[in-house]
Design brief:
This protein is about 15% helix and about 35% strand. The protein is mainly beta. Strands 2, 4, 5, 6, 8 and 9 form a six-stranded mixed sheet that branches. Strands 1-3-7 form a three-stranded antiparallel sheet, with no helix packed on it. InterPro entries: DUF4399. Keywords: Signal.
């Protein structure tokens, strides 16, 4: 019995380590089927002032927030997608000006965008920044910076 347990533990550890290696397989962490996130402010269609930061706050239901690197059931951390589409299923969320990571467990941010129309969407990622399965994402909203 101990041998079976040790083999299973070793396999789990090897799989977890492979997921962290560049080019290693990413696997989605399970999320509750009823989990969802949302942007509490700004709202869809909101007009915000140009030239100064505005507050964006995130909401989450039926899941908890945990920082990057912390693997705990039914948790993850927010990623704010700006003017972009969701990443492909099973792929880690990129980190760039269109994909902001909130790996310390933040639930709000100050954002400044250039004048014009912009889209915002939240996507939860697991401890390795991989979207959950099923994906926990907000509705995509459009705001205008004027």
């Amino acid at each position: 019995m101990r041998t079976v347990f040790a083999a299973a533990a070793a396999m789990a550890m090897a799989t977890a380590l492979m997921a962290l290696l560049p080019g290693g397989p990413a696997s989605a962490t399970a999320a509750p089927a009823n989990a969802y996130c949302y942007i509490g402010w700004p709202t869809d269609g909101q007009v915000v002032a140009a030239g100064k930061p505005f507050r964006v706050w995130f909401g989450l239901r039926h899941m908890g927030v945990a920082p990057k690197g912390v693997a705990f059931n039914n948790t993850g951390h927010h990623h704010l997608l700006i003017d972009t589409e969701l990443p492909a299923a099973g792929e880690a969320i990129p980190s760039n000006r269109n994909h902001l990571h909130f790996g310390a467990g933040e639930t709000e941010t100050m954002l400044e965008l250039p004048p014009g129309q912009h889209t915002l969407q939240l996507l939860m990622g697991d401890e390795n920044h991989v979207p959950h399965m099923p994906p926990v994402q907000s509705k995509k909203i459009t705001i205008t910076v004027r």
